[in-house]
Design brief:
- The complex is a heterodimer of chains A (220) and B (161).
- With 220 residues, chain A is mostly helical.
- Chain A has nine helices and no strands.
- Chain A has helices at residues 2-12, 14-22, 35-53, 64-73, 78-105, 114-136, 141-155, 161-169, 176-208.
- In chain A, helix 3 runs antiparallel to helix 5, helix 6 (114-136) packs across helix 7 (141-155) and helix 7 packs antiparallel against helix 8 (161-169).
- The longest helix of chain A has 33 residues, at 176-208.
- The termini of chain A are far apart.
- With 161 residues, chain B is an alpha+beta fold.
- Chain B is elongated and about 90 Å long.
- The chains are: A mainly alpha (220), B alpha+beta (161).
- At the A-B interface, helix 3, helix 4 and helix 5 of A face helix 1 of B.
Chain lengths: 220, 161
């Protein structure tokens, strides 16, 4: 085992990478500092279950609802996969917000971690984008009307509002075009953005180290 | 390494993380396999009798083509499909029903009246009037159905279509 490890390490240097990621030194912190890792864990759950859902889901008005029903009630363990994705989505939004509150509360966004903060804000928006686009995909009444309302809210912006609404819907009304583009954004655009920014975010977390819990007294 | 029998706190946490991670992976992995494999385990044949038509239409000694509509459910879609069956009789009382699906790679065979043989256009598989392989790549004779005649009505069951 170690011989194989050495052989690969000679050619890849993975041990130093492993060291940098998992064996790095951190200050003594509390459990609230695990919220970011918890979010990452749920994100991985969303990726795995999301990929599994695409095996049966079909993003067209005549198949979307039926294929989701098939996943939920007929495919073996489909209820579990969909359930994990459904509840994971809500959990992820909650965790992302809690993570952000912890960073604000401890002042962890300050120098030298401003860029980490900015990428984190982008990741918050990406998470909300996932939630917004994913909500339409079951193509049931709740999905349809939530997206009608959601796109109408975007359309209420002054001057460019109507254009935004039409671009989001792919026309004046919700249609097959809307469902297809929401699926495309949910399954390709958002994951690409998520992976890119998670990578930068984690790189910065590791490079700068995490912030210690602020102390009341000066300790110089 | 003074007390190498004692597990340090760090080692314990390390082992615990791997163990929990492994459990989660199995917990998702096994259902995922079932989820993907599921539809493959469903049988394709039904136990219901499929009505073909009048038994008197079958000429003596000549495989006669019948077509029947069947309902087939795949995933969340129910399709009506047409199956083709060759029915043959020597005496007008006992009938054999053969699938027109070539046993080589699934192309459809055609009865050639001149040569009195079934011919598959894909890879030149040839079967005789009983569905037995004469030449070419097919590994098995044509599949047969169970046949039933009631009031001159031919019905078939089972087999692979």
């Amino acid at each position: 085992m170690t011989r194989i490890g050495n052989w690969i390490d000679d050619r890849s240097g993975w041990r130093s990478i492993w060291q940098a990621i998992f064996k790095r030194k951190i200050p003594k912190v509390n459990w609230f500092y695990a919220l970011g890792s918890a979010t990452l864990f749920v994100a991985i759950n969303q990726i795995v279950t999301g990929i599994l859902l695409t095996i049966y889901y079909v993003p067209t008005p005549d198949h979307a609802y039926d294929s989701v029903q098939f996943i939920t009630s007929e495919a073996p363990a489909g209820w579990l996969i969909r359930g994990l994705h459904h509840w994971g989505a809500s959990a992820m939004v909650v965790l992302v917000v809690l993570h952000m509150l912890r960073v604000i509360y401890n002042g962890s966004y300050k120098f030298p971690r401003e860029v980490t903060w900015v990428t984190g804000v982008v990741l918050l928006l990406v998470t909300l984008g996932f939630g917004f686009t994913g909500y339409l995909l079951p193509w049931d009444q709740k999905a349809y009307w939530a997206t009608t309302v959601g796109t109408r809210i975007a359309g209420s912006a002054p001057i460019i509002g109507d254009s935004i609404l039409r671009i989001m819907r792919g026309g004046p009304d919700l249609s097959a075009v809307t469902l297809a583009r929401f699926f495309g954004v949910h399954v390709w655009v958002m994951p690409a953005a998520l992976l890119t920014f998670v990578f930068i975010h984690l790189y910065l977390v590791i490079r700068n180290g995490i912030s210690a819990v602020p102390k009341r007294k000066e300790q110089s | 390494m003074e007390e190498d029998k004692q597990l340090s706190r760090r080692e314990f946490t390390g082992i615990a993380i791997w163990a929990i991670g492994g459990l989660i992976t199995i917990g998702i992995g096994l259902p995922a396999i079932a989820y993907i494999v599921g539809p493959a385990l469903e049988g394709s044949t039904t136990d219901e009798w499929i009505r073909l038509g009048a038994a008197s239409k079958v000429e003596l000694g000549v495989p006669t083509l019948f077509k029947a509509k069947i309902q087939r459910k795949s995933g969340w879609i129910v399709n009506e499909e047409e199956i083709s069956v060759y029915v043959r009789t020597d005496d007008g009382r006992t009938f054999t029903a053969m699938s027109n699906v070539c046993t080589h790679l699934g192309c459809r065979v055609r009865w050639s009246a001149d040569r009195k043989q079934f011919f598959c256009p894909c890879h030149n598989g040839v079967f005789d009037q009983n569905g037995t392989v004469v030449s070419g790549p097919p590994p098995k004779p044509l599949n047969r159905y169970e046949v039933k005649v009631e009031n001159d009505q031919l019905s078939i069951r089972g087999g692979q279509s």
